[in-house]
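Hmm, how's this folded?
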Amino acid sequence: QPDVLRRLLQRYAPGDGLELGIELPAVKRVVLVACGTAWHAALVGRALIERWAKIPAEAEVASEFRYGERPLNADTLVIAVSQSGETADTLAAVRLAHEARARVLAIVNVPESSIARESDWVV
């Protein structure tokens, strides 16, 4: 794990800030969706986004996200977190986000996975 973190930081944060190599649109709200241990990572991500970007953020268990009424729109960025990139509930959340015209950033270990292919951006 320390080696993976070191490589990620070298790739995405070579200077003082985190550079993803993608240009995200202006957003007013961020919703992170994930399952299992990826949801724990989403909880950390929520706190960091609010601290660093000063944008309201929330973390949702993807299986619950699918069944709730969520106010998603073009000002919302949905971040889908999945180790495999094939988690069914998280993939369903990505599809719901697109139906609502929200943009989706995937954070996955498998860049050619279903979640990555159906997202607007991939890390």
